[in-house]
Design a protein that fits this description.
This protein is of the alpha/beta class. It folds into 2 domains: 1-36 and 83-123 and 174-250, TPP-binding domain (Rossmann fold, 3-Layer(aba) Sandwich), CATH 3.40.50.1220; 37-80 and 125-167, SIR2/SIRT2 'Small Domain' (2-Layer Sandwich), CATH 3.30.1600.10. Helix content is 35%, strand content 17%. It has 9 helices and 9 strands. It has helices at 5-17, 51-54, 57-62, 64-79, 85-96, 110-114, 176-185, 203-212, 239-249; strands at 21-26, 99-104, 119-121, 124-131, 142-143, 163-167, 190-194, 216-220, 233-235. The strands form 2 sheets. A 6-stranded parallel beta sheet has the order 3-2-1-7-8-9, sandwiched between helices. A 3-stranded antiparallel beta sheet has the order 5-4-6, covered by helices on one side. Helix 1 (5-17) packs across helix 9 and helix 5 (85-96) crosses helix 9. It is elongated. The mean pLDDT is 91.
Length: 250
């Protein structure tokens, strides 16, 4: 028998409220209500470029100025965005549960701005930079919230060479420490995947691994995904709506 949305929300609230260890995996849908562009689909173009045309090491080597124009535009688009109710609920949970971990594919920094503890960023942060030539004097990444750089690409303050966005581009490996954190996070009582199509690995594999280890798996996404049928609880609502309604039940 198909359960109603209200029943599913009640079940999710009960499972989460009685858990000891909670892991959450988030994607672009969590930030959608904040106005952050998702950059998915054929219509998500910037000056006729797709994200896949620009977010690669090869594109940066070929035309760093154009790549940085896009990232500067993205920074400008995100700078005025604020955490929404979905971010706020997850931040509350991160303080409520001593063993809470959040893994995000988002680079916008809104989870951190909402006050979420113990965040692992699979794809880095748009507010970080790194030296494009990996000079000996520079840390792997450093924080820089500049929206409009005087020149593009901005210089590395350690060697004067070009700096690049501190994000993981297409074709680049997820940082080893993030993979290790994700493996540990899959050992949980409840694993919740929120606002993602569950097509990008290894992030999409975390909830599958958690389920295989006995965790209750919960999906929150308004549309059916590749993981929907395998979930213990699947709630077809936007993140901002579902998380608020779950929190009110707890």
């Amino acid at each position: 028998m198909k359960r109603s949305i209200e029943d599913l929300l009640d079940r999710a609230a009960h499972v989460i409220s009685t858990a000891r260890t909670v892991t959450v995996v988030t994607g672009a849908g969590v930030s959608a209500a904040s106005g952050v562009p998702t950059f998915r689909g054929a219509t998500d173009l910037w000056k006729s470029f797709r994200p896949e045309d620009l977010a690669t090491p090869e594109a940066f080597a070929r035309d760093p100025g154009t790549v940085w124009e896009w990232y500067q535009w993205r920074r400008s688009s995100i700078a005025d965005c604020r955490p929404n109710r979905a971010h706020e609920v997850l931040a509350v949970w991160s303080r409520r549960y001593p063993r809470f971990h959040l893994i995000t594919q988002n680079v916008d920094g809104l989870h951190e701005r909402a006050g979420t503890a113990d965040v692992t960023r699979f794809h880095g942060s748009i507010w970080d930079l790194q030296c494009a030539v990996a000079c000996a004097g520079a840390p792997r990444t450093w924080s820089d919230h500049t929206v409009e750089f005087p020149r593009l690409p901005p210089p590395c303050p350690h060697c004067g060479g070009p700096a690049r966005p501190g994000v993981v581009w297409f074709g680049e490996a997820i940082p080893a420490e993030a993979i290790i954190a994700a493996h540990r996070a899959s050992l949980c009582d409840v694993c919740i995947v929120v606002g993602t199509s569950s097509q990008v690995y290894p992030a999409a594999g975390i909830v599958t691994a958690a389920g295989s280890r006995g965790a209750t798996t919960i999906e929150i996404n308004p549309e059916t995904t590749a993981l929907t049928r395998a979930m213990d609880i699947s709630i077809a609502l936007p993140a901002v709506d579902a998380l608020d309604r779950i929190e009110w039940r707890m």
